[in-house]
C-alpha cells in the first residue's frame, strides 16, 4: 500500500513498519514525517492487545529512529516528528540519549539542561535540544541558541533558527540576518521563516531587501516567508514580485499573498484584504489569474483554496480569455467538499457574469448527472445574475425535479428574479 494511502487511513502499524524496516531511506524519512503529521489521531487508537495508545508505539519508534537510523535525514525527520508529539516526547528522547531525568523539573531548569545539550557531541541531541528550547520559549536561552547558529551540522542550524522564530526573539535578528547571507539555502529558508515569525521592523526590512536580491532562489525564499506576516507591510512587496522575471518567484508571490490573507490578525483582516485586492487589480492579469487558478486546482490547504476562490471574483477583469478561465475554475470549485470554499466560489462566480455563463449554469442545474451540491450553488448564482431566460427555465425545472433541496433553492432563485415562489433566504 502506498504511503499516501497509509496516511489517509492513519495506518500507524504499517507506517511504523516502513520506518523501522524499509531499505529505502526516502521511504523511512517520509514515514517519519507522516507519523508526525498524524499526531492528533494517535491518542484515539489503542494498540491491539495492549493497555496503551498507539501514541506510545509511535514515540518509541521515532526515538529509536532518531538515535539509530543510518541516514542523517531520517534521523532529522524523526526528531521533527517527535516535536509534533510535544515536549514530553522530545524530553524522553533527550533523556535516553543524555541520561538526564526531566521529570518534575521546572521549565526554567529544563531550559538550562537543554541549553547545555546544545554543546553535546551528538548532533541529534543538539537538534532535539534546540527544538525543545523553542517549545519552552524561555527568553534566557536566546544567547545560547544564537551561539549555535554556526554549528557545524546544517540540521542543527536549521532547528536553531526555527527555535529563535518560535520564541520570537527580537534580539536575535542581527545574528539571523548575518547568517542569512552566509549559509546554505536550506538554512536560509528556516532563517527567513524565523524573521517573519519575529516580525519586527528590522526583521521585515531584511526580508524586503532580500526579496530584491539578484539570486532568484533568495528572492523566492524571502517572498515565501513574507506570506507568514499577516500584515499590510508585505503586500506591496509581494505584489511587485508578481512581475518577477522568474516564474517560480511569481507563483510563490501569489501563494504568499493568499497565505497572508489567512495569517492576518482579525483586527487587520479587512485592511489586508482591501490592500491585496487593490494591488492585484493593478497587476497584469496573467500574473494574477493563472496562479490563483493553480491554487484552486492543486492546493490541498483549505485556507489557501478559500482565499483563492474569494480573490478570483474580485480581481478577474473583462479579458474574455481570463474571465472564462476563472469561471471554469470557480464552477468546478463550487462542488468542493469544504462548504466555505464552495460558497466563496459561488459568490465570486456571481461577480464574473459574462455572455454564456447564464446558459451554462442553467444547463448544469438541469443535468441530473451532476453533483447536487454543485447544482445548488449554480442556482444561487443564477439568482444573482439570471435574466428572463433563467426565470422561464427554472420555473419549469422546479415543477419536475424530484429533489426537495433543488426545488427549494430553485424557488429561492426565482423569487430573486421576480418570479413566483417561496422566499427561502439568501443562503447558498
From TrEMBL:
Gene3D superfamilies: Leucine-rich Repeat Variant. It holds the Pfam family HEAT_2. SUPFAM superfamilies: ARM repeat. GO terms for molecular function: oxidoreductase activity. InterPro entries: ARM-like (IPR011989), ARM-type_fold (IPR016024), PBS_lyase_HEAT (IPR004155). PANTHER family: DEOXYHYPUSINE HYDROXYLASE, PBS LYASE HEAT-LIKE PROTEIN. This is HEAT domain-containing protein.
Amino acid at each position: 500500500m502506498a504511503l499516501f494511502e497509509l496516511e489517509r487511513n492513519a495506518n500507524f502499524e504499517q507506517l511504523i513498519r516502513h520506518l523501522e524496516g524499509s531499505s529505502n531511506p526516502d521511504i523511512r524519512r517520509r514515514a517519519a514525517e507522516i507519523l508526525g503529521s498524524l499526531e492528533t489521531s494517535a491518542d484515539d487508537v489503542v494498540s491491539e492487545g495492549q493497555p496503551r495508545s498507539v501514541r506510545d508505539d509511535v514515540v518509541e519508534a521515532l526515538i529509536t529512529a532518531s538515535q539509530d537510523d543510518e541516514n542523517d535525514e531520517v534521523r532529522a525527520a524523526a526528531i521533527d516528528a517527535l516535536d509534533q508529539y510535544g515536549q514530553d516526547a522530545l524530553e524522553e528522547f533527550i533523556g535516553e540519549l543524555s541520561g538526564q531525568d526531566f521529570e518534575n523539573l521546572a521549565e526554567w531548569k529544563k531550559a538550562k539542561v537543554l541549553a547545555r545539550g546544545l554543546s553535546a557531541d551528538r548532533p541529534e541531541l543538539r537538534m532535539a535540544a534546540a527544538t525543545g528550547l523553542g517549545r519552552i520559549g524561555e527568553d534566557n536561552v536566546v544567547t545560547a541558541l544564537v551561539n549555535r547558529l554556526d554549528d557545524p551540522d546544517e540540521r542543527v542550524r536549521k532547528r536553531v533558527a526555527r527555535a529563535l522564530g518560535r520564541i520570537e526573539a527580537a534580539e536575535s535578528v542581527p545574528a539571523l540576518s548575518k547568517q542569512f547571507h552566509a549559509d546554505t539555502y536550506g538554512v536560509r529558508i528556516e532563517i527567513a521563516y524565523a524573521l517573519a515569525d519575529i516580525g519586527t521592523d528590522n526583521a521585515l526590512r531584511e526580508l524586503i531587501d532580500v526579496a530584491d536580491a539578484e539570486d532568484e532562489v533568495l528572492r523566492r525564499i524571502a517572498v515565501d516567508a513574507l506570506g507568514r506576516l499577516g500584515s499590510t507591510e508585505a503586500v506591496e512587496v509581494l505584489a511587485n514580485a508578481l512581475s518577477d522575471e522568474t516564474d517560480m518567484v511569481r507563483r510563490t508571490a501569489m501563494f504568499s499573498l493568499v497565505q497572508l490573507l489567512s495569517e492576518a490578525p482579525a483586527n487587520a483582516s479587512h485592511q489586508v484584504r482591501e490592500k491585496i485586492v487593490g494591488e492585484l487589480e493593478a497587476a497584469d492579469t496573467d500574473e494574477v489569474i493563472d496562479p490563483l487558478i493553480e491554487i484552486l486546482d492543486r492546493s490541498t490547504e483549505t485556507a489557501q483554496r478559500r482565499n483563492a476562490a474569494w480573490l478570483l471574483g474580485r480581481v478577474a477583469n473583462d479579458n474574455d480569455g481570463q474571465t472564462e478561465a476563472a469561471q471554469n475554475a470557480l464552477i468546478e470549485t463550487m462542488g468542493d467538499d469544504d462548504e466555505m470554499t464552495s460558497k466563496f466560489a459561488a459568490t465570486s462566480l456571481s461577480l464574473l457574469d459574462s455572455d454564456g455563463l447564464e446558459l451554462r449554469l442553467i444547463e448544469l442545474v438541469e443535468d441530473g448527472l451532476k453533483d447536487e451540491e454543485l447544482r445548488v450553488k449554480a442556482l444561487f448564482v443564477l439568482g444573482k445574475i439570471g435574466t428572463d431566460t433563467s426565470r422561464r427555465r427554472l420555473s419549469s425545472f422546479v415543477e419536475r425535479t424530484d429533489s426537495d433541496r433543488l426545488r427549494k433553492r430553485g424557488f429561492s432563485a426565482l423569487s430573486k428574479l421576480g418570479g413566483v415562489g417561496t422566499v427561502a433566504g439568501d443562503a447558498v
